[in-house]
Structures are given as C-alpha cells and as structure tokens.
Automatic annotation (TrEMBL), chain B:
This is T-complex protein 1 subunit zeta. Belongs to the TCP-1 chaperonin family. InterPro entries: Chap_CCT_zeta (IPR012722), Chaperone_TCP-1 (IPR017998), Chaperonin_TCP-1_CS (IPR002194), Cpn60/GroEL/TCP-1 (IPR002423), GroEL-like_apical_dom_sf (IPR027409), GROEL-like_equatorial_sf (IPR027413), TCP-1-like_intermed_sf (IPR027410), TCP-1_chaperonin (IPR053374). Its main location: cytoplasm. The lineage of its organism: Eukaryota, Metazoa, Ecdysozoa, Arthropoda, Hexapoda. One of its GO terms (cellular component) is cytoplasm. One of its GO terms (molecular function) is ATP binding. It is found in: Cytoplasm. Keywords: ATP-binding, Chaperone, Cytoplasm, Nucleotide-binding. The keyword Cytoplasm applies.
Length: 541, 531
C-alpha cells in the first residue's frame, strides 16, 4: 500500500494565494531530480501525478485556490499546463462573423520571461540571478513558478479585485457566495475529484484571508469539509497581511468583526488552526511589524510578508510531510488539548548556526523562536505543548569534534538533531511538552523568494562577519519553526473578542447588508468568548 | 447647491436633468454593447483575456458576467438582467435592450418638459396592458416532443450554431421527457451534464443512464460489466483516524495495537457483507456486481472487492446517489446492516472510458431510467463551456414551458401585437400619461428592430411590414429572419417562454421607472463620477 497520506490544499483569497504561491515555490525548489535515494520529504503528500492529453506526465499540487476576477495577471485560468496555446486550435465555423475583443497581453516580468524561456529551450533558470521583483509584483502570479492543474484555479466572477462599487470585504458575503451554484456544485465537485484519487487521504490544509469576505467563504468550506469528510483532519491557517492602504476607521472595525467571526467558525469546524501574520495585530490599521533578526523585510509589501508566512508554514507542517513523520491527525492530537484548537506559530529564519548545533544552542539567549501569530510572543508565555521543527542542520553539524562521547550530559550523547533539540527545549522550558522534528535539508529561499535577508547572511544561510557583506543573494537557509499551544493565544482571542464586542452593531452596516442578523453576530462573539475561556488555566484539572 | 456639499465639500453630485442624462447614457451604453448579439443572427463575441484565456459567447448573461462594468447605473441594469437569467434562464439581452429603449423613448418627452413621474405612470398603465396582451396570445402546449422542441430550439439557436442547436434541442427535450412524470415537479438536477474534452461538439448525445467522472481504482477490477447489479451506498470502507487511537484509552502498546486491529476488522466486516451479498445474488449466473460508494474505499477494501470480481467506485457525487437510484432502481444504503437483494439496482451495461488522466464510467441500459445524462463533447474547454451554458438554458426553457403549460409566439410577434394594443390604449387614457404609454409602445419595438438589424435587413422597412401585416391579418406576426418578410411564428415553430416575457415586462418597467425618477446622484468619499 502506498505510504503517502495525501493532503488536499485549499487557498481562499488574494493574500492567501501570495502565501500559497511562495509555499508551492518553496516546495518545488525542494525537488531533487538527481538523487537516487528517496527524499526526506515525501512530496506525494502534497502533489499528484497526472497525465496531459498529449500523454506527458505532470506533477501538480493537489490544490484548489479561489480568487477574485482580475487577480490572475498573466496566468491563464486553466493553469496553462494541460491546454496548449489556444491560438493554434481550429475554431469551430460559425455562420456569422465573430467579434473579437482582445485585451492587451500581459507583459511578463523578468522572472516570468526566464521561466517561459526555460520551458521553451530547456535551459535551466540561472541559479544565481537576482530578480528585483519588489516593484513588479502586483498579483501573486507575478512570481509563481509551480504549474497548476486546470482544476486548481477558481475565479469568483461576482466581485472584482480592487473594485470600488462591489468590495468583497464582509464575512457574510463569503458565506452567501458559498451557496451559489459555482461553489455548491463545481467547487465541491473539484474537492471530491481530488479526494477520489487519494488512497489514503489524511486531511485538508486551508489557508484563508481572515480579514475580508474570503474568511466567510473559507469557513463555509471548512464546515462543508467537516460534514462531508468527517474523520479527516482540517488544518486551517487564517492569514493577514497587516498593512492597509485605506486609512478608514470603519474598515478597521469591519476587519475586527471579520477576524472574530472567522476564528469563531473555524474553532468550531476545523480540527486545528494557526493564525499567522507578520504583525502583532494584523487587523489593526497601524499594526507593528515584527522584527526578525537578520531579516530586513518591507512590511507593506505582501510579496515580503507572505514569504515569511510561507516559510513558517513550511517549517511547521514538516511533521506530516516527512517520509518518516507523523500524520496530520497525530500532530493535532499532540497539540490540541482541552479544545484549544488555536495554536500559535513561530519562526526562526535564518537559524544562525554557528559551528555546530550544540555550541549554537549553548550560547543561545532569549527565546529560540519569534512568534508569527497575532499578539503571541514567545517570551514569558506559558506554553503547554509545542511542536518544533528544525530544517537544514545535518547530523555532521550536530556537535563539535571534541565533544566527549560518553559524558553523562545527554546533550553530548545525542546522535540525532531532533534528540539534541528536544533535550535543549526540555532544559529551557521544563514545563512544556515538546515534540521535535528534523530535516537535514534546508529551506529553499532562492528566487523567486524575495531577498529579504540582511547582507550578513551568506548564500547558504550561515552568518558572515560584519565586514564581508554578501552580495549574491541567499539560496538556502537553516530554519526553525514551531506550533505552540499557549496561554497567549487565549489572551489574543479575548482581546479580539473585546475589541469586536466594543464596536456597536450600527457601525458595522456591511455585515447587515450582507445578510447577517445582529443576534447571530452577538451569539458568535459569545461563542468566541467561550472558546477563549478554554485557555484559562484555572479551569484545568 | 446640494445639501451633501455642506457636509462633505469634496462630494460630487449631479442633479435633475444632469442625473437623468447620466442614467440614460449608461443605459444606452450597455444597450449598444449587447445589441449585436440578440437573436439567432446575432454575432458571436470572442473575449481574449490578457493571459490568453478564450471565451466565445453569444449569451447575454455570460457577457454581462465577463464584462468589467464600472458605471453604477450600468451595473444596476446588468444585475437586473442577470437576475432575470437566474430566475428564468433566458431573456438577458432583451432586458438590457428594453430598459435602454424605455429610457431613450422617455427622454424624448422629458426633454420637452414632461415630468418623469407622469412618464412612470404611463409606463405602469402600459405594463398592465402588456401583461393582458401577453395572456391573450399565449398558446397552450402539451408535454410531448413537438410541443417542447419549438421553444427549446428557439432558446438554443440564439446561443449556438444552428446545426448544433437543432441537435442539442432534441437532446434536451428527450432528456426532460425521460425524467418527466405528470404529478411531480420537475427537478433539473436529475439531468446530469457531463463534459468530455474529446471529438467534436456534434458528437454530444443523450445517455439514458448515468455517466460518472471517475472509475474503478484497482487494476484488477473489471473494466466492463454486463447485466449488473448496482449497489449504491454511502458507507465508509476506509480505515481512518480513529477516536480510540488518539486518546488515553489504552495503557500499553499492545493494547493500542489491539484497538487498531479491532478498528480495521470493523471495516473488513463491512466489505465482507458486500461480498456475501454479491455471492448470494450472483451465484450460478453470469451477472456482474458494481458498488458505487459516496464515501471512500481504501486500497485494502478495493483489493478484497477486486478478488471477487466486483467493480467498485468510490467518492461518487452526492447528487449521483439520488440519480443512480432513479436510473437503475434500488435504494441508496446508508449502512450494510439488513441489506437485501431488493435494495440493489440494475443496469445492462457498465463500462469505463479513459481519456488521459480522466476516467469516465457509463452506467447504461437501465430498465426505466428516470435520470439521464447529457454527454457533451468538444475539442476544447471554451466550446464545452459555451455548450454547457446553452444546454442549461435549453433545459430551463423546457422546464418553464412545462411549468407554464403554454408558450408565446417568438420572433418579435408579441412586441408587435403589444405595440398595436398599446396604441389603442393610448386613445383611451386621458391626460399626459398617454405619452408614457406611447413611449412604452415604441420602446417594445426595439426587439423586432434589433432582430431585423442583426439579420441584415432595413429596420424601418421590416417594422412597417410587420405592423401592416399585423393590422391586416390580426394575427401575431413575427419576422422571418431568412427572408425579412412577415410570418406567423407558430407555423415555423418559433416560440418564447411565457414567464420570460412576463418577467421582462415587469422588471424592465420597474427599473426604467426607478431610473427615470432619480433626480440626484451623489458620490462622496470615492474617486470620480465620470469614470
């Protein structure tokens, strides 16, 4: 029996697709075509093998993404893999003339042009080439590399990206949209067709924009999944960019309401969720961007913030992607205790490995990981359980050559990376139960991943002395990422609930307009409160 | 000075005549776009996006969904007409045309000083009269092939190539007739529409049975089964994450293993039940056995079933559960306890068809299929999409006909009769509302006018011919698009849906009146009104 336990990925919303695009790019650059032994990471979990009409084998993500009309840029709706260029196909003959309305062709940016060139001539992408995509990236397809299956892309025709007259920004709009034929028939059918192909489906991974109506759509989808595919895991990742161009107070109150509704619904229907964002309160107008050591990202660019979220996701999903790892269900069983379904995510990118892991950890000061969920900092937090993954530390870099082998100190006797890290975590936070996973392969951050690293980071991710700045870009970095069930998540939910309850219903006309009743809204907030109470330790037995 | 500018000095506003002018321009703008695709002789529109996506269409509804409409008035009209489509499946282009024309005709009088309110009153009188006219010219039809093909052909011809329209119209009528039963309401979901990217459009056909878009997932399972029992079920045959494996219900590793094994046994028992039933019904004969499950079937279970020569399909569409039992008989099982041979359905032929990575399973030769499949074929995605939209509208047109029990003559016949009657009504109306009625009567003529124009005839010439012919014969006459002469639509089988026309009259009048009565447009806080 095939050992792969398949996961179906769903992405709802433009920012989610930014995250998703980075995530798939990272996955694809991790493919190893030369090696003969099976890779550490089982790519069959996320990808599927297929065949085009011309008999070519394809390897595409088991993915469904949803976005608004006008967000695809130069990417054709069918993904461009299965259908050859349309222009060459014979058109049916019509009795009448045909009016052709042709929009101007999108111009490819430098990266996409190189990619198209690779396809045509078979020349591989220049490895060290640096693309200055920061200014050019407008939509996610501007830096997208992985080819998608024709089923993958789903475009909402009712709303348009950036439209003034019909904004898609209130939670109930999303839930209402789910009830249209397009979602109830076509979209659900696409999920089913992916599920039908899987021998051993373990669950779904849902990335969703929490701050707008996509949250509503994702919640309805999650509800459907929980209903139709009961017993399968549903891991939800509500995300937010955290920097907003419109400076309107009413937009902020609406965002708070959306996030509150979204988290409450996901708490009911998902099996685990990890809200992620690069700022402390991503629904706030002036959210403070988090500072990461050796990373210089621009908080107003979704291209940058999404890349960090994607890297976090890459790290913390490692447990169920490793060939010898656990399943999604096990990860959830480890982390979700007493109904605390929301977990905080964290990241340490790049993990500054100096010499070997042992010496790096010995000299480590402060929290090992930087929080990537709203309001959840790693310092001074009560963490009950955590799952920490480490990438890019090979066994050869475990400890120095002169470390005593038979010492009574378990740190010296550890023979595996996860063992060492587990011991470290046990010592530094003894009251936290830690699950540790390790992969020797580092995280791939070559183009089109944005070059957000400080000049101190070398191409392979180690730290350089201050006087030798790196100018050639970073290709791979070691990293740490984790999921934590912690007290601060409860505090975040409480404060969110407080802020949402503070706003008077009449200041949220968009919700009523989109068909949400006031009583239902209040009840949702009530349930969010109850959910937040799960995190109170006073009630613990 | 508008009050809003005291509150917000940046607000833009347009008042009275100016506001009306904005609305009328918008309505006429969208009318101009849609005009050319009315009727069977309308042009096709091919939309090529910046990324190379192609869409070929003539369907007003599809066009309105594809277009980027920035003007608020235009998008209001667009929404009204897509609502028309949601409700009845046809008449989107007509709605846009009539609204635009009503505003244009009203503008003539309003610019001469008539108050919009009076026009609106006239419109309302005219609307009531038009509904009476519509009622008087409707033709009763029976539910049979001749009765229904006229209307479905008319609906499809406005959306597809005539040759294809003829063929699909027959397919649609046959599909509806097979699922129709006298006393139960018609459920269009019982007609499955399946697409195969393969061959050409003209290979599309009706399958009296069910076609599914997945196949058996085991290499040893039979690819073709004849004379088969069909078991439709919604029972998981998949070993899943179990509740016991996760909690604190076990003390040792052995105990956990034992619990896991028990879980596995549980699934195996289910599979065994199916196998036993198969053995019971297929003993001593050559009959086949097919399991179609809405839930998953894991490789172990598939293997066990394959060994028995059972063809098993997993994760069938939820709706197919209902369709299958209607097509093959039997009952969809939610559990395997108390399963009896009576619960099984029957199909004469079940086979698999593979196209690239897509598999299709045909369940055919059913005894009395009350659920059927329209199988669309086409060489590329956009032709399939276009066909799907058209088939959907064709089915809706037939359903409307059955629901109404009647049709109205098409080819502009209704509009001509209504025009005549409204002109007569005008004489009896006292006061200035008369002018509103007149404007309405003129506006309705837009439909035959555009039909004539799209077919390449002189508009005035054709209208005059039609009006004369109608006055002389007293019959509802329409335009023959191949000759440009008047004809009796009933003779050549050109029919429209009663409900579609009714809906057009109602919604167009309301929207046009509302737009006329707008005397101030304001916009605060956002960019520009001119956009």
């Amino acid at each position: 029996m095939a050992a792969s336990k398949e996961v179906i990925s769903l992405q709802f919303g433009h920012f989610s697709n930014f995250v998703g695009t980075h995530w798939w790019n990272i996955q694809e650059s991790g493919f190893d075509y030369s090696s003969t032994s099976p890779s550490e990471i089982n790519h069959d979990i996320l990808f599927r093998e297929g065949e085009t009409r011309l008999g070519q084998t394809t390897f595409t993500p088991r993915l469904l993404l949803v976005d608004l009309k006008g967000s695809l840029g130069s990417l054709p709706e069918h993904g461009g893999l299965y259908e050859a260029d349309h222009e060459e196909q014979p058109e049916p003959v019509w009795v009448n003339q045909v009016d052709v309305q042709r929009k101007e062709k999108f111009k490819n940016n430098e990266f996409l042009a190189d990619l198209a060139n690779e396809e045509k001539t078979g020349q591989p992408l220049p490895v060290d080439k640096q693309y200055k995509l920061d200014e050019y990236v407008d939509v996610w397809s501007d830096f997208h590399r992985t080819r998608y299956h024709p089923r993958s892309i789903n475009i909402i025709k009712e709303y348009e990206r950036g439209s003034e007259t019909s904004a898609f920004d209130a939670f109930p709009q999303g839930t209402a949209l789910w009830k249209t034929d397009f979602f109830e028939d076509n979209f659900v059918d696409s999920i089913r067709r992916y599920a039908e192909e899987c021998d051993n489906l373990q669950g779904f991974q849902v990335i969703a924009d929490a701050i707008n109506a996509f949250g509503g759509l994702a919640c309805s989808a999650t509800q459907f999944l929980a209903d139709e595919y009961s017993n399968k895991s549903i891991f939800c990742i509500p995300v937010g960019h955290g920097s907003y161009a419109e400076r309107l107070a009413c937009k902020e109150t609406l965002r708070i309401a959306n996030v509150a509704l979204c988290l409450q619904t996901l708490a009911t229907h998902s099996s685990m969720m990890a809200p992620m964002s690069t700022s402390r309160g991503f629904w706030q107008q002036d959210a403070v961007p988090r500072l990461l050591a050796n990373v210089e990202y621009r908080a107003h660019l979704p291209y940058h913030t999404s890349s960090l979220i994607a890297a976090t996701l890459d790290g913390c999903t490692l447990p169920y992607r490793l060939r010898n790892g656990q399943g999604m269900a096990d990860l959830e069983n480890n982390l979700v205790l007493s109904g605390r379904k929301a977990v905080a995510a964290s990241l340490n990118l790049p993990f500054p490995l100096e010499g070997n892991l042992l010496s790096t950890l010995e000299e480590w000061e402060g929290p090992l990981l930087q929080g990537m969920s709203a309001c959840c900092d790693q310092e001074n937090d009560r963490v009950w359980v955590q799952s920490v993954s480490i990438r890019g530390v090979p066994v050869t870099k475990l400890k120095g050559p002169n470390a005593p082998n038979n010492s009574s100190n378990p740190a010296f006797t550890a023979t595996r990376v996860d063992e060492m890290l587990r011991y470290f975590l046990q010592c530094t936070s003894p009251e936290t139960k830690s699950h540790v996973f390790a992969a020797a392969l580092p995280c791939q951050v070559g183009a089109p991943f944005p070059n957000i690293f400080s000049p101190r980071v070398s191409p392979s991710g180690s730290l350089l002395p201050d006087d030798q700045p790196n100018t050639s870009g970073v290709r791979t970095v070691p990293m740490l990422a984790g999921l934590h069930s912690s007290r601060s998540m409860g505090a975040m939910l409480e404060s969110l609930q407080g802020q949402a309850a503070h706003t008077h219903w009449r200041n949220l006309p968009q919700l009523a307009e989109a068909g949400l009743e006031r009583d239902d809204y209040n009840e949702s907030l009530e349930q969010l409160m109850q959910f937040a109470e799960c995190y109170n330790e006073e009630f613990e037995v | 000075m508008a009050a809003i500018s005291l509150l917000n000095p940046k607000a833009e506003f347009a008042r009275a005549a100016q506001a009306l002018a904005i609305n009328i321009t918008a309505a006429r703008g969208i009318q101009d776009v849609m005009k050319t695709n009315l009727g069977p002789k309308g042009t096709m529109k091919m939309l090529v996006s910046g990324a190379g996506d192609i869409k070929i269409t003539k369907d007003g509804n599809v066009l309105l969904h594809e277009m980027q409409i920035m003007n608020p008035t235009a998008s209001l009209i667009a929404r009204a007409s897509t609502a028309q489509d949601d409700m009845t499946g046809d008449g989107t282009t007509s709605t846009v045309l009539v609204i635009g024309e009503l505003l244009k005709q009203a503008d003539v009088f309003i610019s001469e000083g008539l108050h919009p309110r009076i026009v609106a009153e006239g419109f309302d009188l005219a609307r009531k009269k038009s509904l009476e006219v519509l009622d008087s010219i409707k033709i009763k039809v029976d539910v049979n092939k001749e009765g229904l093909s006229g209307v479905s052909r008319t609906a499809l011809k406005t959306k597809l190539h005539p040759k294809l329209a003829d063929q699909l119209s027959d397919v649609c009528v046959d599909a509806i007739l097979s699922i129709y039963s006298k006393d139960t309401p018609l459920d269009l979901h019982m007609v499955e529409i399946m697409e195969m990217q393969h061959k050409t459009e003209l290979d599309s056909k009706l399958v009296k049975g069910i076609v599914m878009d997945h196949g058996a997932r085991h290499p040893d399972m039979p690819k073709k089964v004849t004379d088969a029992f069909i078991l439709t079920c919604n029972v998981s045959m998949e070993y899943e994450k179990s509740e016991v494996a996760s909690g604190f219900f076990y003390k040792s590793a052995e105990e956990r293993e034992k619990l896991l094994k028990a879980e596995r046994d549980f699934i195996e028992k289910r599979v065994q039940k199916v196998i036993e039933l198969k053995r019971a019904v297929c003993a001593g004969n050559n009959k086949g056995f097919v399991v179609i499950n809405q839930k998953g079937i894991d490789p172990f279970s598939l293997d066990a079933l394959a060994k028995e020569g059972i063809m098993a399909l997993r994760r069938a569409k939820r709706r197919n559960m209902e369709r299958l039992t209607l097509a093959c008989g039997g009952i969809a099982m939610n559990s395997f306890d108390d399963m009896l041979p009576e619960h099984l359905g029957y199909a004469g032929l079940v086979y698999e068809h593979v196209l690239g990575e897509d598999k299709f399973t045909f369940v055919e030769e059913c005894k009395n299929p009350q659920s059927v499949t329209i199988l669309m074929k086409g060489p590329n995605k956009h032709s399939l999409v276009q066909m799907k939209d058209a088939i959907r509208d064709g089915l809706r047109a037939i359903k409307n006909t059955i629901d109404d029990g009647c049709v109205v003559p098409g080819a502009g016949a209704f509009e001509i009769v209504a025009n005549k009657e409204l002109m007569a009504l005008k004489q009896t109306v006292s006061g200035k509302a008369k002018l509103g009625v007149q404007a309405y009567a003129e506006a309705l003529l837009i439909i035959p006018k555009v039909l004539a124009q799209n077919a390449g005839f002189d508009t005035q010439d054709s209208i005059v011919k039609l009006l004369e012919e109608a006055a002389n014969t007293g019959l509802p006459v329409g335009l023959d698009l191949s000759t440009g002469e008047a004809m009796v639509p009933a003779d050549s089988g050109v029919f429209d849906n009663f409900i579609v026309k009714k809906q057009i009259i109602n919604s167009c009048t309301v929207i046009a009146s509302n737009l006329l009565l707008v005397d101030e447009i304001m916009r605060a806080g956002m960019s520009s009104l001119k956009g």
